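Lecture notes, unit on protein representations.

Consider one protein chain, 335 amino acids long.
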Amino acid sequence: MNPFAYLKEKVKKIVLLEQYPESGEVFLKQRRVFTLPNKPGLMFVLMLVVLFVAATNYSLNLGFALTYVLGAVAWVNTFFGFRNLAYLHLAPGAANPVFAGEEVLFTVHLINRRKNHRYALHVGFADKGHVAQAVDIAPESRTSLQLSHATTQRGLLAIPRIRLETWFPLGLLRVWSTWLPDMKALVYPQPESHAPPLPFSGVANQDGQGHAGDEDFSGVRAYQSGDALKHLAWKHIARVDIESGGSLITKQFSGGSASDLLLNFADLPSNLDLELRLSRLTSWVLAAEETGLPYGFRLGTTYFPPAVGELHRANCLRALALYGIDEPLAESQPS
C-alpha cells in the first residue's frame, strides 16, 4: 500500500470511525457527522470574498450589507444542514436469503426521535456507482429502507458500508456520515440450470413393505414399473418437466412400497467441481420440494432425515451455503 492510501485508511479509522461493524442501534452524535462545502458552496464562498473586496475598495455600504446578509444565510444553511442529519438513530433490520447471482435486500431503519423534520436524506451504499435513495422523516417517527446489493458467490455476505448524506436546505454544503451495521445475508448456491433427475434408489424401504391399499392415502413416491395408471398423482406430475428427465409420481397408500430419496453429497461424481456439486444438490432440494416427496439430506457430517417442508428446505440450503466456509465473505469496500 502506498503512503497516500495508508494515510487515507488511517484517517477513515480514526476520524471517520470506520473500524468494525456496529451491533444494535447507532446514534449519530456530533462527532460522527461531517460538513464540508461542495462545488456550489465553494463558488458561494468565492462570491462572498469578491463582494467583500469590492465593497472595501469602493467603500460601498450596501456592498458590505449584502456580503453580511449572504454570510448570515450561509451560517443558517450550515446550522440547518447539520441538524438535518445529526442526532438520528439507525438500526439494522433483516436480510432474506437469496441464491447466488440474485440481488439481496438489506433492510435498515432510520429513527427520528426529535421534533424537527428530516428532509432529503440520501441513503445508500458507499460503493462506487450505487444509487442512493432519498427519504424524508417526520418528527418522532421512523422509516425503513431496503438497499439492494448484487451477489456473486455463496456464503455469508456482510452488508457494505452505508453512507448517509444531505445537501439540505440550499445545496451549498454536503453533510454526511457513514455506518457499518453488523449484518449479514445468507447466500445459497446457484441451482444448476440443467440438473440430472432426482436420484431415487428404487429400493423399497421398511415402512413400505406389503400390498398397497386403495383407501388409506399416505403420500407420493416415484413411479415404478407395474404401478396402476389410476394411482398416478397428476397434480404432482403437472409440476414436473417429464421431457427434461423428471420422474412420474405415484400415489402411495398404506402398506405400499416406497422408494428412498437421499440427496447425498458423497454420491456425486468426485471429478465435478465443488461448487457444481453444491449447485446440483441445491437443484435437487428444490425439485424434491416441488414434487412434495420426503427426502433425506447428507452433506459431510451433516444429516437430515427424510422430511419435506419449508424448515427442512431452509436447513438443507443453509448447510449447502456454509459448506467449507469458515469466514464470511469479505465486506465490500467503499470507494
